[in-house]
TrEMBL record:
It is found in: Cell membrane. PANTHER family: DIPEPTIDE TRANSPORT ATP-BINDING PROTEIN DPPD, OLIGOPEPTIDE TRANSPORT ATP-BINDING PROTEIN APPD. GO terms for molecular function: ATP binding. InterPro entries: AAA+_ATPase, ABC_Ni/Peptide_Import, ABC_transporter-like_ATP-bd, ABC_transporter-like_CS, Oligopep_ABC_C, P-loop_NTPase. It comes from Streptomyces huasconensis. It is a peripheral membrane protein. Pfam families: ABC_tran, oligo_HPY. Residues 7-256 form the ABC transporter domain. Keywords: ATP-binding, Cell membrane, Membrane, Nucleotide-binding, Transport. This is ABC transporter ATP-binding protein. Gene3D superfamilies: P-loop containing nucleotide triphosphate hydrolases. Belongs to the ABC transporter superfamily.
Amino acid sequence: PTTLLEVRDLHVEFRTRDGVAKAVNGVDYAVAAGETLAVLGESGSGKSVTAQAVMGILDTPPGRITAGEVLFQGRDLLKLKEDERRKVRGAGMAMIFQDALSSLNPVLSVGDQLAEMYVVHRGMSKKDARAKAVELMDRVRIPAARERVGQYPHQFSGGMRQRIMIAMAMALEPSLIIADEPTTALDVTVQAQVMDLLAELQRELHMGLILITHDLGVVADVADTIAVMYAGRIVERAPVHEIYRAPAHPYTRGLLASIPRLDQKGQDLYAIKGLPPNLTRIPPGCAFHPRCPMAQDVCVTEEPPLARVTYEGLVAERRSACHFWKETLDASR
Ligand code: SF4
Ligand code: MG
């Protein structure tokens, strides 16, 4: 599969009253056409900031990309001028946010907002663009699209609004979609429907999809690869089924254990104690050591590299940033 996006050694800092917050500290990931990468982590792990840097919508200042490359179809986006960047953002990649109500314009009908994409980017007539808007609403399965195209965002339910956001993101048929907690604000049944829709469209259009979430349960059925972030780094990266079978990082193990699973009844719950670190004062060595039940002396002094994890039967590339990934893997099985 062709690599669509490759993030290399990305670093992002924020100036805060407390000092410099190191939000992203050397992130590497790649997404191919037709692939879904789930980026998982607690709030403050750097997953959204990484995505904003990729999209070119980072708040600057206070944010600053201090190093790295963002290669999209082979071009480093960080070297493009803002107007070239905007073109990539329109047709190459699009983003879906958690809160549709604040991302949509409250005083424009959803049809006008969808149509505007085609008028601005494709030079279509208003009438043709309006017809495309109805088509898009149908495509994201909004019932009675033709009747509802003139309605305003507040007239739709949360789930329907999120479908409209998906329609907006898809309008120009981008090759990559980044969805930042797209279903977090919705209730559980609606969450599943929206996630299914997203996965279905992604398959049909053979797009790359980056799914940012704090909820491992949401991505199980749709992701191909999972990258787990902690304190601005990727601490584990692996095919989703391998991670589910046996995590190779204690942090991932904790995240997995916090999802209730029927087949694990009676087993000890392995919950993560404590809180993520203040990013102006990331602990030395392994940033997770103050919370890690497996920590040893070496964890306090030496930062673990994102090392290759190997075992019999593993064909894909799998990595873990833990000095004791072997022991963790064994303990997880
Ligand atoms: Fe825990 Fe040490 Fe592994 Fe970090 S390197 S996750 S502290 S065992
Ligand atoms: Mg976030």
